[in-house]
Amino acid sequence: MEKRALIIGATGIVGGNLAQHLLACGDWGVTGLSRGRTAAHSGIDSITADLTSADSVTQALQGQRFTHVFFTAWSRQATERENIKVNGAMVRHVLDALGPAGTLEHAALVTGLKHYLGPFEAYAQGSVPLTPFREEQGRQPVDNFYYEQEDRLFDAARQYDFGWSVHRPHTIIGFALGNAMNMGVTLAVYATLCKETGQPFVFPGSSAQWNGLTDMTDAQLLARHLEWAATSPNARNEDFNVVNGDVFRWKWMWTQLAQYFGIDAAPFDGETRPLEHRMHDAGKQWSAIAARYRLGEPDIGRLASWWHTDADLGRPMEVLTDMSKSRKAGFLDYQSTSDAFFALFDRLKAERIIPA
């Protein structure tokens, strides 16, 4: 049987880049499963289903045969208890629908560094492991829907006899529209607003992030990591951190981003100034900018996720990730983080999302 991939969330920042990578490999058939609110990329077959409903998923996948499934989407709920209930069920529904056919060889789950930091409502509370984060540090003693998703994955792998991998990226840089967790596009929109309205390009985060070391994950590198783990015996039944491989301080990166957009980086005075509290008029401003430059997306809500960028840049501690486990297993890929930002910005210009 040829390699046939089902991507849960194929229109998102992770799933979309993964789909394009697998299609470029030339030996994958790719199908996306989503709620159908966003059009799938060219070349991808589409299945629409409500992932929170076992009946909907079962009906949508009836008669389908896949060798690999990639979970790249989640559903944000009001509380972590609800996150656990809903997101764990989504994994279970898909695997219970696919498992009995006996064709599934591998299932990959994308989570993130909140595995170590804790969920949003208990973010960085209690005992956070020493950085760099390493896979052997394990779980934290807090409720976390990532753990529920993992447990449902492990249970199904035992029941239906397939391999698995878990992937923990840091903040992801990549092209996607309408994505709730997208720092790269958010910062591109913010820099454009500053340039067009004369606002200062102020770093919105904490002193710990401004001065400390950090890293990020390019969506295309993550796609290559997912494909590697799905086909490498060394990665079978393993969890992996996945980051670009370089480290930086935001006090340096902020200047690099400012230079790209031809603006000055405002001096940082140590005070955290969240974007969500300062962007009250951003929607009207962006609509005017979009009209002036004939941009493709006048709705700033489909581009910027102020809250998520604030959460990442406002962290009160160093967040840094170790990639030794992947390196030892054979994944040696690398991506310059500044180049990842610039490549994203170039594409946003080419796609007429921000002014050229």
Characterization of this structure:
The protein is an alpha/beta fold and 356 residues long. The protein has two domains: 3-169, 3-Layer(aba) Sandwich (Rossmann fold), CATH 3.40.50; 178-214 and 247-319 and 337-350, no CATH class. It contains 14 helices and eleven strands. The strands form three sheets. A seven-stranded parallel β-sheet has the order 3-2-1-4-5-6-10, sandwiched between helices. A two-stranded parallel ribbon has the order 7-9. Strand 4, helix 3 (80-98) and strand 5 form a beta-alpha-beta unit. Helix 2 (54-61) packs parallel to helix 3. The longest helix is centred in the first third of the chain and has 19 residues, at 80-98. It starts with a strand and ends in a 6-residue tail after the last helix.
In brief:
With 356 residues, the protein is α/β, with parallel strands linked by helices. The protein is 42% helix and 13% strand.
Q: What would the keywords be for this entry?
A:
single chain, 11 strands, Rossmann fold, 13% strand, two-stranded parallel sheet, 14 helices, 356 residues, 7-stranded parallel sheet, alpha/beta
List the helices and strands and how they pair.
Elements: E1 3-8, H1 13-25, E2 28-34, E3 45-48, H2 54-61, E4 68-71, H3 80-98, E5 106-110, H4 114-117, H5 145-160, E6 163-169, E7 172-173, H6 183-197, H7 207-211, E8 213-214, E9 217-218, H8 219-231, E10 238-242, E11 248-249, H9 250-261, H10 275-278, H11 282-293, H12 306-313, H13 324-329, H14 337-350
Parallel strand pairs: 1-2, 1-4, 2-3, 4-5, 5-6, 6-10, 7-9
Antiparallel strand pairs: 8-11
